[in-house]
Write a structure and sequence with these properties.
single chain; 20 helices; disordered C terminus
């Protein structure tokens, strides 16, 4: 195995650990928030507005970074340091200018924007929601700058730092929640300041890498012009899950009180757990995908995708099995305290269960799209995403009124699953087969540890009863150990190595 392959594997493990810590703090933030606010109409209002920086604006930042990483890779490999610095200074200056203008427009038209994104809220809650919108609009600028600088750090292999910047952000929000309780407006201010902090803590590394941050605007730069042309296609193509979650929460404001909050808590938990691995993987492999794409080395891309989906299958299949069996117990353990009642648990557990079926589509969105972006083909993911997003809206209308939370969350999962299927077929046509006999052989062998895991769960369900420890935590731990043990005995750990040709 080549040294580059070893570096990829080590980077994935390291980034996964850092993201796990970051997500754990985000997890703690949600737990504290839930215990203080529960699933009330005020929580519904905050979750709808919080969706914009956490989902939509983050998607904008991801789209910007997705275009910038291949372009910056080109400047590093083919141009001078001075040209590289001018390109980045120009990019940051134009993003600052554009995002600031959009922020001002958003603040001015906040009443109309609030009615659009939270149509089911009225009275005093609608007024508070409008104020929150104005408070959190500047996050568009801070999120965009944060993701651009993250991408720069990733190109220079500073994966751990780029993955850890949300740690102080989450600590800041937890501090505000603990010491100021139910001050929802203060929480909006703290969220906005937290995003600014995530950008600022990356600047010393940029300076260390020799980047000059003096403003420089050149509207004729070819790569910058193309970046902004490609922004909307990438945003639409890479944001199906995020946009679906925003639409779900907005639609739920028409339903009973707490529905939006339950959807938010359920989807946040799903994204928190799964993104530890999915985002870590896409973060680590994208610079290498960009390199292979520049070289038109499709054989290496095929091998990389095969290894990636083996790892996802190994990690995410047992996750889905545990969620199906213990979704209500998981939500009760995580959230049920303070203002978060038993009724809140039942609602949120339903959302968590059905959102979890989106895990295949989420992985497909992150990985298949990266392949197309590395190949500089941006419109195909956008087209497929728009089709699936329209389907999600239709299903929300059809199933939301009749099946409530389950109908809304299942609609999103179905749309994501369809997206992964279509994109997988299109990637196959683009680069050739990436799931060959070794992948299906791996999947077949994985059935043995999964069967052992399921057997433990069934035995405890049939013969053991008791409190949280005996009925949930003990079988959870034992089934996980059985899964890992049988996987090790079967040699599945060796098949998960991120190996590529030694001549790469």
């Amino acid at each position: 195995m080549s040294s580059e392959s070893k570096k990829t594997g080590k980077a994935f493990v390291g980034v996964s650990i850092v993201i796990f810590v970051s997500k754990l703090l985000g997890f703690a933030r949600d737990i504290v928030f839930a215990s203080i606010f529960g699933t009330t109409v005020l929580t519904d209002a905050f979750q709808v507005i919080f969706s914009f920086p956490s989902l939509l604006f983050s998607s904008v930042g991801t789209a910007l970074s997705s275009v910038n990483i291949p372009d910056l890779t080109y400047y590093i490999n083919s141009r001078t340091v001075e040209e590289r610095n001018r390109y980045i200074s120009n990019l940051l200056a134009q993003i600052t200018l554009g995002a600031t203008l959009l922020t001002v427009v958003g603040i001015i038209f906040a009443p109309a924007l609030t009615r659009l994104i939270a149509p089911g809220l009225d009275g005093e809650v609608a007024h508070i929601t409008m104020i929150l919108t104005r408070i959190m609009m500047p996050t568009l600028l801070f999120v965009s700058l944060t993701y651009i600088t993250q991408g720069i750090l990733q190109v220079h292999s500073h994966f751990l730092l780029s993955a850890s910047i949300s740690v102080p952000f989450n600590l800041l929000i937890i501090f505000a929640l603990v010491f100021r309780g139910e001050d929802i407006l203060l929480l909006g201010y703290v969220t906005t300041i937290g995003w600014l902090l995530q950008f600022l803590i990356q600047l010393p590394i940029l300076v260390k890498e020799g980047y000059h941050l003096f403003p420089h605007i050149d509207f004729t730069n070819e790569h910058t012009v193309n970046l902004f042309k490609q922004l909307v296609p990438i945003l639409m193509g890479n944001s199906l899950l995020q946009l679906s979650l925003i639409i779900d929460r907005s639609f739920a404001t028409h339903l009973s009180e707490g529905t939006t909050s339950a959807l938010a808590f359920g989807s946040n938990l799903f994204v928190t757990i799964t993104s530890i691995f999915i985002v870590a993987m896409s973060t680590v492999v994208f610079p290498r995908l960009s390199k292979y794409s520049l070289d038109r080395d499709f054989a290496q891309i095929q091998q990389m995708l095969s290894n990636i989906f083996k790892i996802f299958l190994f990690i995410l299949t047992p996750y889905l099995l545990l969620v199906v069996c213990y979704h209500q117990e998981i939500i009760a353990l995580v959230y049920e305290r303070g203002a978060f009642t038993r009724e809140s648990t039942v609602m949120t557990a339903s959302a968590f269960l059905f959102y979890s079926f989106a895990v295949i589509g989420y992985a497909g969105q992150e990985i298949f799209n990266r392949v197309y972006y590395a190949l500089k083909k941006f419109k195909i993911p956008m087209t497929v995403s728009i089709i699936c997003l329209a389907l999600n809206i239709i299903l929300n209308v059809c199933l939301g009124e009749t099946h409530g939370i389950a109908g809304i969350s299942l609609s999103t999962s179905f749309a994501l699953l369809l997206y992964a299927l279509i994109m997988g077929i299109l990637v196959y046509r683009e680069i050739g087969p990436f799931m060959q006999k070794d992948f299906f052989f791996f999947a077949l062998r994985l059935c043995i540890p999964l069967g052992g895991m399921l057997a433990i769960i069934v035995l405890f369900r049939q013969f053991v009863s008791g409190g949280l420890i005996l009925s949930f935590l003990l079988p959870l731990g034992l089934s996980s150990l059985i899964y890992l043990g049988l996987s090790y005995v079967g040699g599945l750990n060796k098949m998960l190595l991120m190996k590529e040709d030694s001549n790469s």
